[in-house]
């Protein structure tokens, strides 16, 4: 009897070593599934095992059937009543009252002989893992198997957490990389806008300086042209008190009229030049 027990433990130890080594080499949840399909059947008797690992967005559900393994993220609201009880109270479950939702089809349930549902809430490093297992007379599960199941669960939980954390880190790095690219693109666009504004300001400044130079040139030219006839008019007006009426009428007034006509002509030119410049400025602005 002792030899049989010793041999059984040796077989379980070898099977667990292969299982654990395989899990440690896994780099994805898909690879974990392959390792479970290969080794788990040599460690435990079961018809199905269900693992629930709490995550930020819900629970990672790992469903293991005899011939099929699947995984997905589920919400807390989708947990079954006994699972919610395990989550809150951590009291182990053993019952023949099995929710039909744990079976893929009703025929899977009908094939079993006196099935039992086992459930646990395993704690490790402040992390909680919910485990449920269905067995029957054909594939019996006993209290002596709980420690093996706990070892398997600890090994799976540690590796799954590692992979999930790596995936989260990769996703966050990807988000940061995309955010950096977006910010860089926006900065490049802003820089182009700034450079364009600089060019526009530079061009507008150049245009204003050219227009100011034109206006200064016109102002200087007009001041010179206006000053000459204005000076003659001023000089003639000062001679009125020294001339008699006849001399004023015959000599000064004709000269005064000539200077006034010249003054009028110069002013007309000033008005014409200013008008043309204003029209030019408006056309450039448009």
Look at the structure and give the mean pLDDT. Answer: 82
Number of separate structural domains: 3
Q: Which strand order do you get reading across the main beta sheet?
A: 3-2-1-6-5-4
The arrangement of helices and strands along the chain is HHEEEHEHEEHH
Indicate the percent of residues in helices: 55-70%
Shape: rod-shaped
Biggest sheet layout: 6 strands, antiparallel
Estimated structural class: alpha+beta
Give a count of the beta strands, DSSP E runs of length 2 or more. 6
Condensed summary:
The protein is an alpha+beta fold and 286 residues long.
Protein model, in words:
A hairpin with a 2-residue loop joins strand 1 and strand 2 (58-65). The chain has a six-stranded antiparallel β-sheet with strand order 3-2-1-6-5-4, with helices on both faces. The protein has six helices and six strands. It has helices at residues 2-25, 29-39, 81-89, 106-110, 146-239, 245-285, and strands spanning 48-55, 58-65, 69-74, 93-95, 116-124, 127-135.
């Amino acid at each position: 009897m002792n030899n049989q027990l010793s041999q059984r433990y040796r077989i379980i130890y070898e099977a667990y070593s292969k299982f654990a080594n395989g899990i440690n080499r896994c780099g994805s949840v898909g690879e974990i599934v392959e390792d479970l399909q290969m080794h788990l059947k040599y460690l435990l008797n079961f018809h199905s095992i269900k693992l629930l690992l709490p995550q930020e967005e819900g629970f990672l559900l790992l469903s293991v059937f005899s011939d099929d393994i699947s995984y997905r993220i589920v919400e807390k609201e989708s947990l079954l009543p006994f699972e919610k009880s395990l989550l809150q109270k951590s009291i182990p479950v053993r019952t023949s009252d099995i929710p039909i939702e744990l079976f893929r089809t009703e025929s899977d349930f009908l094939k079993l002989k006196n099935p039992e549902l086992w459930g646990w809430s395993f704690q490790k490093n402040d992390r909680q893992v919910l485990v449920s297992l269905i067995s029957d007379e054909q594939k019996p599960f006993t209290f002596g198997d709980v420690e093996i199941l706990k070892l398997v669960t600890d090994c799976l939980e540690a590796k799954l957490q590692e992979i999930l954390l790596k995936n989260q880190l990769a996703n966050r790095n990807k988000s940061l990389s995309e955010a950096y690219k977006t910010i860089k693109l926006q900065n490049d666009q802003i820089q182009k806008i700034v450079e364009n504004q600089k060019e526009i300001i530079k061009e507008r400044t150049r245009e204003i300086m050219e227009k100011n130079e034109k206006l200064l040139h016109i102002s200087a030219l007009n001041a010179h042209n206006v000053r000459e006839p204005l000076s003659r008019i001023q000089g003639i007006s000062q001679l009125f008190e020294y001339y008699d009426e006849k001399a004023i009428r015959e000599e000064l007034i004709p000269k005064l009229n000539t200077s006034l006509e010249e003054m009028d002509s110069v002013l007309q030119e000033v008005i014409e030049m200013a008008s043309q410049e204003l029209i030019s400025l408006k056309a450039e602005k448009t």
